[in-house]
Specification:
This protein is an alpha/beta fold. It has 9 helices and 13 strands. The protein has 2 domains: about 160 residues, Serine Threonine Protein Phosphatase 5, Tetratricopeptide repeat (Alpha Horseshoe); about 170 residues, Leucine-rich repeat, LRR (right-handed beta-alpha superhelix).
Length: about 325
């Protein structure tokens, strides 16, 4: 309902509306907000729109949902106030949260159509249900239509595929997904604690993997031979320095360029990234206390930490070191 619609339901004369004024020294916000809203209706009915807007704004500032809804409608239509979709959505959300059924219904329709918000049918259904439960007939009608539409969409989409690794899985077993052609962008659930040896070895289409920091061990050759793997990210959501990246875990991943290690990593065993000849840069976090010999064999990196010649010695890191390879010269 726009501001100009009120005069149809509130038939008072212009002169009568102009005699209304806000109560002085308000002490009861709820009462004052309602009074301001009612006064706004009278001003709107008298076609004194600027005065009506002021009253609605005062009531809206006090959290009165019907006034927030009225102003939201005005901003959406450009009726009585300048058109401002962002301001309208903000006020509609406040009014809907305050239980105003009409705002819940309107906002639900916006989510269906993507008007001023990102299209979200689930959120639309939630809002329409709230308004419908209050007996708001337009919401009941639109909710029924939306449910039918969503049911048809589900039928057309067919059954949902079973997740490759269901949430709640504790470990990825030895060779469990070796050579699996289905895997492209892999996100391992946070429930996983162990990735056993060769779990994802030689997966030909694997392109990226995100591993939770709570994994304690990435087993030997766990991702070895994944020739199209380009990106490895280890999240920072585990115990500090507890993760072990075992021997050959990522060896022969010849396309691997981006490796993001977190402070969950504590030890990197030998040959872990050997023959990953596309790696040009890597940051070793402070949490890492051991990098075994030949970890980066046959890569563009030639590690040279203080107290270590090349990469043929045990390395105890005191602080982060980013290593760059520039024509065979190492700087860090």
């Amino acid at each position: 309902m726009s501001l100009f619609d009120f005069f149809k339901k509130n038939k008072v004369s212009k002169s009568e509306g102009e005699h209304y004024a806000p109560a002085a020294n308000p002490v009861d916000n709820d009462r004052i907000a309602k009074e301001q809203h009612e006064l706004g209706l009278k001003y709107a009915a008298a076609q004194n729109i600027p005065a009506a807007v002021k009253c609605f704004e005062k009531a809206a500032d006090l959290g009165y949902a019907p006034s927030q809804g009225v102003l939201a409608d005005g901003y959406m239509r450009g009726a009585g106030v300048p058109q401002n979709t962002a301001k309208a959505i903000e006020l509609f959300k406040k009014a809907a949260a305050g239980g105003y059924a009409q705002a819940q219904c309107n906002l639900g329709l916006f989510y269906i159509n993507g008007t001023g918000v990102k299209r979200d049918l689930n959120e639309a259904r939630r809002l329409l249900q709230l308004a419908a439960d209050q007996g708001f007939v337009p919401a009941q009608i639109n909710l029924k239509t939306l449910i039918n539409t969503m049911n048809e969409m589900e039928k057309e989409a067919g059954p949902k595929p079973t997740p490759l690794i269901p949430e709640g899985t504790n470990s990825i077993e030895y060779m469990q997904f070796k050579g699996d052609e289905r895997i492209v962008d892999l996100v391992i659930p946070d429930s996983v604690k162990v990735i056993e040896g060769m779990a994802f070895a030689n997966c030909p289409n694997l392109r990226s993997v995100i591993i939770p920091g709570c994994v304690s061990v990435i087993g030997d050759y766990a991702f070895g031979g994944c020739e199209n793997l380009e990106s490895v990210t280890i999240k920072d959501n585990g115990d500090y320095g507890k993760m072990v990246i075992d021997e050959n875990a990522f060896s022969h991943c010849t396309s691997l360029k981006n490796v993001r290690l977190s402070h969950s990593v504590g030890r990197i065993n030998r040959f872990a990234f050997s023959n990953c000849n596309s790696i040009k840069e890597i940051t070793i976090p402070k949490s890492v206390y051991m990098v075994e010999p030949r970890t980066f064999d046959n890569t563009a990196l030639d590690f040279a930490f203080v107290g270590c010649v090349g990469n043929y010695g045990y390395v105890r890191l005191k602080e982060d070191a980013t290593v760059y390879s520039i024509m065979g010269t190492v700087i860090h």
